[in-house]
Design brief:
Shape: elongated
Strand order of the largest sheet: 1-3-2
Helix content: 40-55%
Largest sheet: 3 strands, antiparallel
Number of strands: 3
Length: 156
């Protein structure tokens, strides 16, 4: 009886995943809906004073290796530093990447997340470490897929 219920739950989850995937195939990503979206600033708040965020005017390595405009402000209430970034120039093929479902600001978003992690903890924290299991399962595959895309989107 338990196997029957577990099998039905797995089948329902797989069906729900397939329906969601099929529904999303015709969607255009958010950056393609608004032509100005790719030129907007992405921002984070880092719990460090500005002189620790960019000592001597040098940006931390994750942002320093990118070609991006960066600006800093003191966070309200003396709560650290607000750090904003956006890509300097649109790369060739941006429209094609948008149609393919890839946001051109993904690299900037990832660099901001890595910078925040590096400055606040001293290391770039990653959630996509290999987890040991005895056998692959459907929920494990879904979790692996979510962890693989975790740094690319969502709120900073």
């Amino acid at each position: 009886m338990k196997r029957l219920v577990a099998g039905a739950a797995a089948l329902a989850a797989a069906g729900l995943g397939m329906a969601r995937w099929a529904a999303s195939r015709g969607r255009v990503p958010g950056a393609a809906k608004d032509p100005l979206e790719s030129s907007r600033w992405l921002g984070i708040t880092i719990n460090r004073p500005p002189d620790e965020v960019a000592p001597g005017g040098h940006l931390p390595e994750p942002l320093g290796r990118m070609d991006a405009e960066v600006r800093m402000n003191r966070a309200p209430g003396d709560r650290g530093t607000e750090l904003y970034a956006r890509p300097r120039a649109q790369r060739p093929g941006t429209l094609a990447r948008l149609r393919g479902g890839e946001d051109p600001r993904t690299e900037t978003r990832t660099a901001l997340r890595e910078t925040k992690s590096l400055l606040e903890t001293g290391d770039v924290l990653r959630s996509d470490e290999e987890m040991e299991t005895t056998r692959p399962t459907l929920p494990g595959k879904v979790l692996d897929m979510a962890l693989g895309r975790a740094a690319e989107g969502g709120r900073l």
